[in-house]
Structures are given as structure tokens and as C-alpha cells.
Specification:
The complex is a heterodimer of chains A (846) and B (589). By secondary structure, chain A is of the alpha/beta class. In chain A, the strands form nine sheets. In chain A, strands 4-9-10-12-11 form a five-stranded mixed beta barrel. A five-stranded parallel β-sheet of chain A has the order 16-19-22-15-23. In chain A, strands 26-28-27 form a three-stranded antiparallel β-sheet. The termini of chain A are far apart. The N terminus of chain A is likely disordered. With 589 residues, chain B is an alpha/beta fold. Chain B folds into three domains: 190 residues, no CATH class; 196 residues, 3-Layer(aba) Sandwich (Rossmann fold), CATH 3.40.50.300; 70 residues. Chain B has 20 helices and 17 strands. In chain B, the strands form five sheets. A five-stranded mixed barrel of chain B has the order 1-3-4-6-5. Chain B starts with 11 loop residues before the first helix and ends with a helix. The N terminus of chain B is likely disordered. The chains are: A alpha/beta (846), B alpha/beta (589). Chains A and B meet through helix 3, strand 4, strand 9, strand 10 and strand 12 of A and strand 1, strand 3, helix 9, strand 15 and helix 18 of B. Strand 12 of chain A pairs antiparallel with strand 1 of chain B.
């Protein structure tokens, strides 16, 4: 075939372009793998190694050549090969030989002389084939996982079990964990990584031997697939020294070719006598057509023709892999690398998938043109794949709460941290000021708002969700609402959390509809089937859903949130679909006060214009008010001056960088599940009771509720999150104290009854504070008194303004100022009682 | 080869080989070096250590490509538009026990067939284009060089009697060949004509990402021995290296099919060397504005504030004239022209100062806008203007986008070099509907204005690239699509006819702007206190002042300070800032 140029094929001359139909790499100038050549060269030496029929190795069949076969290989090849019928091309000086370039290897030449006397060394190395073979045999037969009991000593090794399994299911490969190889025999591991072509071929042979001893009739060729190398390379760092080495790297598939059938065995038929030849195996990407008919009686020349439907083909695919965004340095563009997939690996991933590939890095020369023998001095590189691990699959199985489907975020697959990182985290978590440090690291460019940040931090870590056997669920997610004046960096905070959080979805209230947030039933226009499409909240299951401009959301959309925020599901009953989808999401919403600036005279409800039912579902409601405060201003001024005069970096040296922060959070969320200690539980009860008591003032007739059962749940969640931050399995008393403080801080601002200055949960729950209600009641009763006094049933009407005057005159028991709208409200109440009739501006008694 | 055996200028490869031989004799081992530099870089660095030597090297552009010979030294000034990854090549090979090198050349020189030892080395590929929006004055004329060069090659041709396969001569042989055919790049004129795209046009989706201006010449630069962090996307760099032309590469085109395309980089397919010349970079340097100035370097620093003051005055006069005698607007414009991002903390780009001139309509735009953009073109190295029409927003591709089909980054209008000046004309905007592209583009612009970042679309994910662009916006009312740092109503009192400036004056002003931009800046302890107090006081009186407003005041202070050639902020200048701000506020009322 045209793409072959190994020393063994020097005599074909220029091959016709028509031959290379099945070659995927047209203009490559290449030759078979070193292994293949070696086998042929060796065939004269009767070793065990040479005897087994060369299986259709995936490596050998990829018709490309490493440019790094060792020089000794080339030389001895020439020496041996001429006799052995192998590749004896070294003698022809005019032949292009691009393939046998040396590799800077210290082993080079060591065994040059010993080559023929000790028959089984891998070319140019000090690896003895027999040693390797026995090492592999030992490994396969005797490797046991460390955790297996010593009693099982006589049980079969891990890989023997899997071999039996493969035979049973007639599989074609077994997966071998490189860590196991390393644990069993580090030397073998090193050899395998350095000389993968050779070692893997031996591995395959060993496997075949074992298979045939177990089941003689097993015909399939079992291959080994190595995965999970100890070190993973970054695509950027691949360099010439990696060529011909086993490497493992991560990336994202950006493009995959169609599947190419590659011929493996060809059958020829004689046009004269109709004789069918035996299958001819592709040798180095080349099939030699028999020049004459093989049938003794016929012997017709140039009569053989290929029979396509009796040939055997194998699948092959070329895939392009690109670096993941986190590996790209600033000011760079992503690198890409080509992968060559064979057989079962084909179509293992589609564009957009993140995969981890184990394979052999190879380079091949590029022929200038099919008719040219000259080659370019440039090599094309690709990875011959051995194993593909899909990152997404792994995540799904791991039920990882922090997993991510958005590629922008880095939390993702690295949740299994290496030990070093873990130790670092443990260390970090042991620091006494970890809580402060974490909150400092959260959006370091936003000033002040320390308590808000702490609340957000709690949200990131989250509490423990509880599912009781009775079916009752308690959510672990913490919902936060930020209300504040424009320009107080609410949106920035939101964006930051969105960036940080796993599976975060960011929506704007104005642009969201109910279905867009929850789920949506659509009819497929073609098939007519109804399908469910997830909205933002469902998509952010186990994440944080950030909703900006919450106040501008339509009422219908907001009402959908009720279910999500407490039950954590989205129920759909429409068009033949009744479904309940999980939406275990924390909601982080921010809203502007209705009058664009917060009016301290009005209650929170009036300020935000949100239904109290929804408001009570937020664990923490922060009012971010832009209060004139010289101290804050001074700090801001200092910060900005510093920003402009070069020492900006020093201001935030202590902050933990965002990557560490995300991994820290995801680790904690996954692995730490704190429980309430007795002491903490006691404290919770005590604090709660106290909070409720606080509403009852001695001598005050009004009943103010300061805490509701919802609050105690919030408190538990908050204290759990706080314990998580410390990687602590127990919720301690101080966690509870801090949780109370956070709640108080948040509530103090939002649930302060401005008339009395006390915390009043009624404000949140109904939008009207207790004192306000009392005031209204007195109002109504005094109006009633006036009306009774001044008006007769069905008599003359009275203007509201007159009424107001009367009230003011009367006003013994109303100590505050009275406005016309207060009067209107009271009158409305009375008219609903049927006591008055309102006619425009006048009232009438009935 | 005795004496000065090589000529760095005309036979750079000879110099490379010569130094390779030298290095070999002093113990350089190609087998273990991984292609590390053996002294070539130093050699060339030394040779081109001063500006005059560099100016001897012809600059590769669409006009010089017609006469520049392959395998000679050329310069290419451009912006790194795309990075094509690494390339492995046969760097060194053994020719009868002596090592030879292929570094800095394209074609394989090793005699195939014999059992050679070959070392695989690697190099980086960068796709460079002329800086988008490059102004006329930045180009230097190479007529003189051309003549000299043609002479030289003429001599060479006569000298040559026969072509030798010997490597040392191969360069000359190619030259000869090229000489015979006229120029290998002759064909490109044809291609150029069809692919010419004007600045505002939508990039076509042909194999070669269209260049931003009609006569631009892209170049594929191959980088050796340079740390990755050295060269970044969108950097403006001058590469000095060997121009190569590989005649065989063209033949690839007709034999490629889908499969081979998938494995190969497809680089030769999309970039036939007759359209995209290859440059093997020996040395490179990042370009600043002063490198484009003819002959003169930067102004002497603070020692002579008087000079700065004088130039500032004359420039101010000019700008005031341009803006219809609006002195305040001219002040702000000057500050705007001096702005530059000099630090980034999270999402805040410190030092940006975009200006939005309002109260302009179509008629006044045609007067002031044109005059202004013309003036800016002659003052700044790179300027671009974007007309904001609904149609343009809906059709143009602003953000660069990766095309995986050809594995290239398709440039967008906003892929521009740092320091580019961008004029956005909103006066042309009519009411209408934006489609999704338009919305995306508007967002990109907004993001650029607010954070000085452009999002690059890599389809599966997006990447934000930091940029440093000065943005000047013309609009009738305050632009809401593009919230600029400074909003100023223009109040021209009269229309002046365009003042003709002499090239010398223009040169002085360019030089002044470049110098001021490069000045460092600091603040004294005492003044810092004053500034802080003033900021606090300002915030106490006006609660609507956010951190951005305060930040802007400091940026303005810096600009005023450097515009006088001073590196520390003085009280006088700080008060000027406050006064300017007061005047601006007054106008806004």
C-alpha cells in the first residue's frame, strides 16, 4: 500500500494511488509498528515468543510508524532480515526511509551485540522479552487486590476472574488498571509506559496463552486495555520525548470522523478458474495480491481479484480532542490532538464529551504527495487509543452533588482529590479562622457585606437534606433573598456565586416565565409525542439557581417557586404527562425595592412587593441598604486608591483562590455530613424558645411572633453548613450560636417593625406588623364611633376629608399622624362589614 | 567558510548552519538537546541589537512579497490571530556521522534512504495577521530596501553557474529558481483580489480567515525556543526570521480527502504557501507604539516638563479646534486618548476611560465625527470604527469563533490588538429589532466596555480574553447600550475647517501620546490622604456615587498627571480633575 515504506517493502516501487482505498491516512508515509517488524525479523530464532500467530494487533494495523524506532533495530533488522525474509531494506540506499529515527535513549545500543546471542531482547532496549513475559504472567495470575482477605489466598487473582468472565461473555478485551500493575510490579509498569508497543504485544500474547489454556476453543483474540495511568499529561506538555510512550490525558472531543472500514483480511479469487485464496492478512497496512493463481492446476498470471464481501474489515475512527478550558493559560488558544480509535473504541464518545484517554503517542511522517517519495520534515502526531474513559459517565454514577454539566466551571470530575490536595484541605479546614478566610475569599472585590457573604457561604456549603422513612423530606438547601438599593453590587454577588456554584443557573426574573423556570411540556412537531423539557430550576438540581430581578418576575412564575422552595420538586400535570421532577436547588434571588430605593417607612413586603408566602421560604433575607456611613466610605476610598496605585494585589493576599474554593466546597459537600451534637441541639432549643419569648413584652397586649418553625429548620441547616466548613462531623454549640447570629442579622434588618423596633415575623408572614394591625384596629373603631355619633342611617353623606378632620380632633387614642389613605383603608374595612357605603369621596351609613 | 563566513541578512540559514557546526565542535549534542538553541538566537540578537540594523531587514507585506526572496531574512509585523499548536519536525539528522540541522527550514533536507538518525524537535505555529486597523503612518517604506535587495539577488544570479544539491547552497538554488519564475508569490495577487474584505464586512467562511483590510498579508510564523507565556494571542509582535517558500506543499491540495484531513492539521490545505508565507522566526519582540515612530524614540522623561507642556498645549489646541472650540471636551478627549488598562483585579479593569460624547446627531457627526476620526488615524497606530446600525449589529460577527471544521479561530471584529482605539457611532442607530446575533454582539460590546474583555466562542465553551481598547462613543443621548465611563455633552461653538498638520507635528504628537501612555504613576502619602478625604466627602454629598465613579476620578487624575509628563500626582492636578468633573456634571444637568 502506498502508505507503507518500511524497510521490508523497498521493492514495491511507487505504488499506485488506487490501492490505498482503505487507508485513512492518504498522504502519510509510514510503515508498520516496530513490533511487527521485530516479529518477522525474529522468526528465524525459535523462541516461544515468535511462535504464536501474530494476532491482528490494533497497534500493528494502524499503518503508521513511529519515527523513533531505535537505530539498533534498523541495523539488526537488516542483518537478520535478509535471511529471515523480513525487512531487509537497509541495503537499498535509494529507498526512502523515514521511519527508523533514533530515540534519545540511554539504552540505545547496549544490546546491540548481544542481540543474536540472547535472542529475546526488545530492540534497542535492555528489556528481555522473557522477563517481561513472565512478569506479566505473574501479574495476571497472581494479582489480588490488597483489600482481599488473606484467607482468599487461594482464590483466583483479580484478572484471572476477569479473563474467565471475558471468555464467558465472549468479550474481546480485558481492562487492566495501571495502578494494579504498579502495585504488583513497578518495574513492569515502567517498562510498559516506556515501551508500550512491545510490552502490550507481549501482554496480548500472554493473555492468549492463558485463554487458550482455559478454553482451547476460544477463538476470539483477547486484548488488554490499560487505563488509569499514574500520571496524566496535559495536552500542552506533549513533546517529542513522549513519542512512543504510553500517556494519558484529558480533553474534550470536538470532532469525530465517520467510521472508516479498514481491511484486515483479504480474500482473492482467480478470474480464470474461480479458485478462492486463503484469507491474506494485512501486513503493515498492505495486502500483497498474489501474482499468480495459487491453484496448482491453474497458475494463471495476474488473474487474482479481490472479493470484497469475503474480506474482513475493522472499524476505525479519527477523533479530535481539545484541551479543557482550565488547562489553557492566559492568552492562549486551546490545543488539539488527534486520536485514532479502533474496533470497540469507535463511537465511544461524541463531540462535546469530556474523556480521559490512555494511549500511545505517535508521530508519522507526511509524504509530500502520493506520487512523491520525498517526505516533509514535519511529523503528524496522534494518539493510538487503548482506553477511553468518559468523564460524564463517571460523574453520573458518583451521585456527586457538586457535579457539573456546564463546562465553564471547574468543580467537576476532580472530586476524587489526590492525597496531597486532600491533606492541604484538611490543613486548611483546621485553621481557626477558616470561616473568616472563606468569607473573605468570597467575591473579594466586593466591599463590606461581610454578613451577607457569610450567609452566601452557608448556602454554598448547604445543610443536610433529610429523608425520613415516613416520607417526610427536609430540604438541606438554603434559600437567600437579597433586597437592596441599586448599585450595591447585588448582581455582582449573584454572578460570583453563579460562577462558583455547581450547576448554577442564572436567570433574570424579567426574562423568565413559569415554564422556563420549572418544566415545560411540548409536543414534538413530527411525532406528536409529548416531551418534558426542563427549566432552570430543574436543571440546577443540586445546585444554586440564581434569580436576578426577582421582583420583576411575573406572578405566575413566582407562584411556581412555592413548591420548589419547600418541597424541592416540580410537579407537572399537563397534556397527558403527570410528573414530579426533582429540583433540589438552593435559590439565591435578589430584588430591588419597588420604589427603586428602599423606603424605610414601609415594610419589607411593601418594599419588595413579594407575596409573604414566598418570602417566608427564604431562610435568610438580607437588606443591603446603602446607608451613608463615613467609615465604609473611607474604606472604599482607600481600596480604590490602592487599586490605582499598584498595591491592589497585596490587599487580598489572604484570599483563597477561586479554584481551591470550589474544590474545597465540593469536597465538603460530598464527604462531610455533620450531625447535631447533643449540646448543639440543646442550644438550638434554648435559642428558639428565647426567640419566641422575645416577642412577648411584659405589659404589651400585642402578640408578636418572632420565630416560626421554619426558622428552626433554617437554623439547623445553617449550623450544619457551618460545621461543614470546618470539615467537622459534628455540629457544635458555636455553630448554632453563629447560625443564630446570622439569622438575627438577616432578620433584624428585614423583619424589624419600624414602628416598634422589634423583630416581628408577622411582617414576613403577612406583610403587616402586629403594631400596624393594632393601629388599624383602633382606627376602624374610632371611625365607627364617629360615624355612629355624627351620621344617621340613610342620612346625609360625609366627605372623607371631614372624617379626617374629625378623627384628628378626636384623636385621643391615636398618637401618630393620620393620613387620608389610612382613613380610606379603615373605611374600606367598615364597608366590607356592611356598616358604611362608600360613594366616591363620600361615605354613607347604612 | 572563513572570516565573516555568513551574511545574517541574505543567508541566514548559512549563519544557522555555521553556528551549528561551531556548536557541535564545542560539545553540543543534538541527540540530547531536544532542539535547544545552540547560540543562533544570541548571534542574531547581537547582530540586530540596534535599530539601524533591524531597519535593514525588509518588512514582509503585500507589496514587498513580490520581490522578497525566499530563504532570506525578513521582518513581519503583525498580531497573533490564532495559535495552531505545536509541530514536530525532523530537527537534526546524521549525515555520515556528522550532524546536520533542519532548524529554521521547512523542507526535509535529510537524504532519505540511508539509515539516518533523526532527532524530532518541536516548534510552535502562530498564525499572524497585520494588526487590524493599522494606520497608514505606521508602515515604513521599503522602496530603498527593495532596490538594494534586487541588486543583491541579481548579482547572485549571475554568480551562480550550476545548481548543487549540496545543502549549503540549497538556499541559493531556491533563490535562483524563484528568480527564474519571477516570484513564487506572484499568484497571490489574484487570490487577494477576490478575498479582499473591507473592514466592516462580515468575514467570509472560506478556508482562510479573511483579513481585516484589503491588502493585508497573513503569515504563518514558526517559533523556536520561546517560552509559551512569551507570546500571547492578540499580541503585536515583530518577527524577524527566514522566509520560506515550499513549492511542493501546494500539491497536497488535490490529493486530500476527508480522512486524511481529519488527521492532518490541514494547515497546508487552508494556507497554501503562495497565500500565506512561512516565516521561521529567529528573534522576535513585542511592538509598542514607539517602534512605529520613524527614527525617534520616546521623549526624554520628566526632566523636561516644559517640553511636555508645550506639546500638550499644541495638541490641545488642535483637539479643541476639531471639537468646535469645545475646550472641556478636548480635555476629556486627551485624557481618553491616554488611557490604558494597567491593572486588573477580578472583573475591574483599572485605567480604562471610555468616553461618550453626546448631543451629536447625524449632521454634526458628519462634521465632527469625520474630522475626529481622521485626526485620530494620524495620531494613533491602530484605530477602528464601528458603525452601530441595526443591520450591522445583526450581521457582523464581533466575537471570534472557533471553526472546528477547519480547526481555526475565525476572527471577529473585536479581535483587536491591545491599545487599539475604537470609535462607535451610535448616531446611525435607528429603532429596529435585533436578532440573536445582534443581541450577542451588543452584549459583547457592553462587556468590552465594562470589563475590557471579549468572549471568544469555542462552541463547547467560551473563553474571556482580556483586551485593552480605548472606546469613544458618539451618540445623541446617553448611550444605554454602551455605558461609557464618561458621558459628556459636546457643545461646539463653531465649525472649524480641518487644520492641516505637518508630518513633523503629527510625529511629535504621536511620540507625545506614546510617551505619556508609557509613563508610570504613583501618589505621595500626603496626597493620598487628601484624595481619600475628597472621595469620602464626595460620597457623603452624593450617595449615587459608586465605586466606579470614584475609580474614574483616580483614572482621570493619573491621565492628567501623565499628560504633563509627571509621574506623581500633584495637588494641582487632582484639583483639576475635580474641577473637570464639576464642569462635566454641570453640563449634564
Amino acid at each position: 500500500m502506498a502508505s507503507d515504506s518500511s524497510p521490508g517493502n523497498t521493492n514495491d516501487g511507487p505504488s499506485s494511488p488506487g490501492e490505498n482505498v482503505s487507508s485513512p491516512i492518504e498522504n502519510t508515509y509510514s510503515s508498520p509498528a516496530a513490533l511487527h517488524r521485530r516479529r518477522r525479523g525474529r522468526s528465524s530464532t525459535p523462541t516461544q515468543f515468535a511462535t504464536p500467530p501474530p494476532p491482528p494487533t490494533r497497534l500493528a494495523s494502524s499503518n503508521s510508524t513511529p519515527p523513533t524506532s531505535r537505530p539498533s533495530a534498523a541495523r539488526s533488522n537488516g542483518r537478520n532480515g535478509r535471511g529471515g525474509g523480513g525487512g531487509g531494506g537497509g541495503g537499498d540506499p535509494g529507498t526512502p526511509l523515514s521511519t527508523d529515527e533514533p530515540l534519545p535513549s540511554s539504552d540505545d545500543g547496549e544490546d546491540d551485540g548481544a542481540d543474536d546471542t540472547t535472542p529475546t531482547f526488545v530492540w534497542g532496549t535492555n528489556i528481555s522479552v522473557q522477563d517481561v513475559k513472565s512478569a506479566i504472567e505473574m501479574f495476571v495470575k497472581h494479582f489480588r487486590e490488597a483489600r482481599e482477605n488473606s484467607e482468599d489466598l487461594f482464590r483466583e487473582g483479580k484478572y484471572m476472574v476477569s479473563i474467565r468472565k471475558v471468555i464467558e461473555i465472549e468479550g474481546e478485551w480485558i481492562d487492566v488498571d495501571a495502578f494494579d500493575v504498579f502495585d504488583y510490579d513497578p518495574d513492569l509498569y515502567n517498562k510498559m509506559v516506556r515501551y508500550p508497543l512491545e510490552v502490550l504485544a507481549i501482554f496480548d500474547i500472554v493473555l492468549m496463552d492463558i485463554v487458550s489454556t482455559i478454553n482451547r476453543l476460544f477463538e476470539k483474540h483477547v486484548q488488554v486495555r490499560i487505563f488509569n495511568l499514574r500520571t496524566s499529561t496535559s495536552m500542552r506538555n506533549l513533546n517529542p520525548s513522549d513519542i512512543e510512550k504510553m500517556i494519558s490525558l484529558k480533553g474534550m472531543i470536538i470532532r469525530s470522523s465517520s467510521i472508516i472500514p479498514e481491511i484486515r483480511e483479504a480474500v482473492f479469487r482467480c478470474l480464470v478458474c474461480g479458485y478462492f485464496s486463503d484469507p491474506i492478512i494485512v501486513d503493515r497496512g498492505k495486502i500483497s495480491e498474489p501474482p499468480t493463481c495459487l491453484k496448482q492446476e491453474c497458475m494463471a498470471k495476474n488473474s487474482m481479484t479481490i472479493v470484497h464481501n469475503r474480506c474482513r474489515f475493522a472499524d476505525k475512527q479519527i477523533v479530535r480532542l481539545q484541551e479543557t478550558p482550565d488547562e489553557i493559560p492566559e492568552g492562549g488558544t486551546p490545543h488539539t490532538v488527534s486520536l485514532l480509535l479502533h474496533d470497540k473504541l469507535v463511537d465511544n464518545g461524541k463531540p462535546g464529551d469530556r474523556i480521559e484517554v490512555t494511549g500511545i503517542y505517535r508521530a508519522m511522517t507526511v509524504r509530500v504527495g502520493p506520487a512523491h517519495r520525498t517526505v516533509k520534515s514535519v511529523f503528524k502526531t496522534y494518539i493510538d487509543c487503548l482506553h477511553i474513559k468518559k468523564a460524564s459517565k463517571l460523574r453520573m454514577s458518583a451521585e456527586d452533588p457538586m457535579d457539573v454539566d456546564n463546562s465553564l466551571r471547574r468543580v467537576n470530575e476532580d472530586v476524587e482529590l489526590d492525597e496531597e490536595k486532600l491533606r492541604k484541605f484538611q490543613e486548611l479546614s483546621k485553621q481557626p479562622d477558616i470561616y473568616e478566610r472563606l468569607s473573605r475569599s468570597l467575591a473579594p472585590n466586593i466591599w463590606e457585606l461581610d454578613d451577607v457573604k457569610k450567609g452566601l457561604l452557608c448556602q454554598l456549603f448547604g445543610g443536610n437534606a433529610l429523608n425520613l422513612a415516613s416520607g417526610a423530606n427536609f430540604r438541606g438547601d438554603i434559600n437567600i433573598l437579597l433586597v437592596g438599593d441599586p448599585g450595591t453590587s447585588k448582581s455582582q454577588l449573584l454572578q460570583y456565586i453563579h460562577k462558583l456554584s455547581p450547576r448554577g443557573i442564572y436567570t433574570s426574573g424579567r426574562g423568565s416565565s413559569a415554564v422556563g423556570l420549572t418544566a415545560y411540556v411540548a409536543k414534538d412537531p413530527e411525532t406528536g409525542e409529548t416531551v418534558l423539557e426542563s427549566g432552570a430550576l430543574v436543571l440546577s438540581d443540586r445546585g444554586i439557581c440564581c434569580i436576578d430581578e426577582f421582583d420583576k418576575m411575573s406572578d405566575s412564575a413566582r407562584s411556581m417557586l412555592h413548591e420548589v422552595m419547600e418541597q424541592q420538586t416540580v410537579s407537572i400535570a399537563k397534556a397527558g404527562i403527570i410528573a414530579s421532577l426533582n429540583a433540589r436547588t438552593s435559590v439565591l434571588a435578589c430584588a430591588n425595592p419597588s420604589g427603586s430605593r428602599y423606603n424605610p417607612r414601609l415594610s419589607v413586603i411593601e418594599n419588595i412587593h413579594l407575596p409573604p408566602t414566598l418570602l417566608s421560604r427564604f431562610d435568610l433575607i438580607y437588606l443591603i441598604l446603602d446607608k451613608p456611613d463615613e467609615q465604609t466610605d473611607r474604606r472604599l476610598a482607600k481600596h480604590i486608591v490602592a487599586l490605582h496605585f499598584e498595591n491592589a494585589e497585596s490587599a487580598q493576599e489572604e484570599a483563597i483562590d477561586i479554584t481551591t474554593l470550589t474544590t474545597y466546597v465540593s469536597y465538603a459537600r460530598k464527604n462531610i455530613h455533620p450531625k447535631l451534637s447533643d449540646e448543639a441541639a440543646e442550644e438550638l432549643t434554648r435559642g428558639y424558645v428565647e426567640m419566641r419569648k422575645a416577642g412577648k413584652f411584659a405589659g404589651s397586649s400585642k402578640k408578636v411572633i418572632t420565630a416560626t418553625p421554619r426558622q428552626i429548620e433554617s437554623l439547623i441547616r445553617l449550623s450544619e453548613a457551618l460545621a461543614r466548613m470546618r470539615f467537622s462531623e459534628w455540629v457544635e454549640k458555636h455553630d448554632v450560636d453563629e447560625a443564630f447570629r446570622l439569622l438575627r442579622v438577616a432578620m433584624q434588618q428585614s423583619a424589624t417593625d419600624h414602628a416598634t423596633g422589634t423583630i416581628d415575623m408577622d411582617l414576613i408572614n403577612t406583610g403587616v406588623s402586629a403594631s400596624e394591625r393594632m393601629r388599624r384596629d383602633t382606627f376602624v373603631s374610632s371611625i365607627r364611633d364617629i360615624a355612629l355619633e355624627k351620621m344617621q342611617i340613610g342620612g346625609s353623606s360625609m366627605r372623607l376629608s371631614e372624617l379626617l378632620e374629625e378623627l384628628k380632633k378626636h384623636g385621643g387614642n391615636i398618637n401618630t399622624e393620620i393620613h387620608l389613605h389610612d382613613v380610606r383603608k379603615a373605611v374600606a374595612t367598615l364597608s366590607s362589614e356592611g356598616f358604611l357605603v362608600v360613594e366616591g369621596d363620600r361615605i354613607k351609613r347604612v | 567558510m572563513g572570516g565573516p563566513a555568513y551574511d545574517c541578512l541574505t543567508n541566514p540559514l548559512g549563519a544557522v548552519r555555521f553556528s551549528f557546526v561551531n556548536a557541535l565542535s564545542s560539545g553540543y549534542d543534538p541527540a540530547s538537546s531536544v532542539g535547544k538553541d545552540w547560540g543562533v538566537v544570541d548571534l542574531f540578537r547581537h547582530y540586530f541589537s540596534d535599530e539601524s540594523a533591524i531597519s535593514q531587514v525588509p518588512i514582509l507585506d503585500s507589496s514587498s512579497i513580490k520581490w522578497v526572496q525566499p530563504k532570506t531574512l525578513v521582518r513581519f509585523r503583525g498580531m497573533i490571530q490564532d495559535m495552531l499548536g505545536n509541530e514536530f519536525y525532523a530537527g537534526a539528522y546524521k549525515d555520515d556521522s556528522t550532524w546536520r540541522t533542519n532548524k529554521y527550514s521547512d523542507v526535509s533536507q535529510f537524504p532519505e534512504g540511508s539509515s539516518t538518525e533523526i532527532q524530532v524537535w518541536e516548534r510552535r505555529l502562530l498564525y499572524c495577521v497585520p494588526v487590524p486597523g493599522k494606520n497608514q503612518w505606521t508602515e515604513c517604506s521599503s522602496q530603498e530596501l527593495k532596490n538594494r535587495f534586487l541588486d543583491l539577488t541579481g548579482q547572485n544570479r549571475e554568480k551562480r553557474v550550476r545548481v548543487d544539491e549540496e545543502m549549503t547552497d540549497s538556499m541559493d538554488s531556491s533563490t535562483l529558481e524563484a528568480g527564474r519564475n519571477g516570484s513564487p508569490f506572484k499568484k497571490m495577487k489574484v487570490g487577494e483580489a477576490t478575498s479582499s474584505a473591507s473592514e466592516s464586512q462580515v468575514p467570509q467562511t472560506s478556508g482562510i480567515p479573511p483579513a481585516t483590510s484589503a491588502d493585508s498579508l497573513p503569515c504563518l510564523v514558526k517559533i523556536y525556543d520561546s517560552p509559551e507565556s512569551d507570546l500571547k494571542l492578540n499580541d503585536v509582535v515583530e518577527f524577524l526570521g527566514v522566509l520560506t517558500f515550499d513549492p511542493i506543499v501546494m500539491m497536497d491540495t488535490d490529493t486530500l480527502d476527508e480522512n486524511s484531513d481529519a488527521l492532518s492539521e490541514a494547515e497546508s490545505v487552508q494556507m497554501p504557501s503562495e497565500k500565506v508565507p512561512r516565516l521561521h522566526c529567529l528573534i522576535h519582540r513585542k511592538l509598542e507604539t514607539q517602534h512605529f515612530l520613524h527614527g525617534s524614540s520616546l521623549l526624554p522623561e520628566p526632566k523636561s516638563p516644559q517640553i511636555f507642556k508645550e506639546i500638550r498645549e499644541s495638541l490641545m489646541k488642535y483637539l479643541t479646534g476639531l471639537l468646535g472650540n469645545d475646550h472641556i471636551a478636548a480635555q476629556f478627549l486627551l485624557l481618553h486618548l491616554l488611557s490604558k488598562v494597567h491593572g486588573r483585579v477580578d472583573n475591574v479593569a483599572v485605567g480604562k476611560l471610555s468616553l461618550n460624547l453626546i448631543h451629536l446627531n447625524k449632521e454634526s457627526m458628519s462634521i465632527f465625527g469625520t474630522q475626529l476620526s481622521g485626526a485620530l488615524k494620524s495620531l494613533l497606530p491602530f484605530t477602528q470604527s464601528i458603525p452601530l446600525t441595526i443591520e450591522y449589529l445583526n450581521t457582523a460577527s464581533f466575537g471570534p469563533k472557533k471553526d472546528y471544521g477547519i480547526n481555526r479561530l475565525m476572527p471577529g471584529v473585536l479581535q483587536i490588538a491591545d491599545g487599539t482605539h475604537l470609535i462607535l457611532d451610535e448616531t446611525e442607530l435607528q429603532p429596529g429589532t435585533l436578532n440573536s446575533v445582534g443581541v450577542e454582539n451588543a452584549n459583547l460590546l457592553k462587556n468590552l466596555l465594562e470589563c475590557q474583555k471579549v468572549e471568544y466562542d469555542f462552541q463547547y465553551y467560551k473563553m474571556e480574553m482580556a483586551t485593552d481598547v480605548q472606546m469613544l462613543i458618539f451618540s445623541e443621548g446617553k448611550s444605554n447600550i454602551m455605558p461609557a465611563d464618561l458621558v459628556l455633552p459636546l457643545q461646539p461653538s463653531q465649525v472649524n475647517s480641518l487644520e492641516v498638520i505637518t508630518p513633523e507635528t503629527a510625529e511629535t504628537w504621536r511620540c507625545y501620546l506614546a510617551t505619556c501612555k508609557s509613563l508610570s504613576h504613583s501618589i505621595g502619602q500626603e496626597l493620598q490622604q487628601v484624595v481619600e478625604n475628597d472621595l469620602v466627602a464626595a460620597r457623603q454629598t452624593d450617595r449615587s456615587l459608586g465605586s466606579q465613579d470614584l475609580s474614574r476620578l483616580l483614572t482621570m487624575a493619573r491621565m492628567i498627571s501623565v499628560s504633563y509628563g509627571e509621574t506623581t500626582l500633584s495637588l494641582e492636578h487632582w484639583q483639576m480633575v475635580l474641577e473637570l468633573e464639576r464642569l462635566r456634571k454641570e453640563r449634564l444637568k
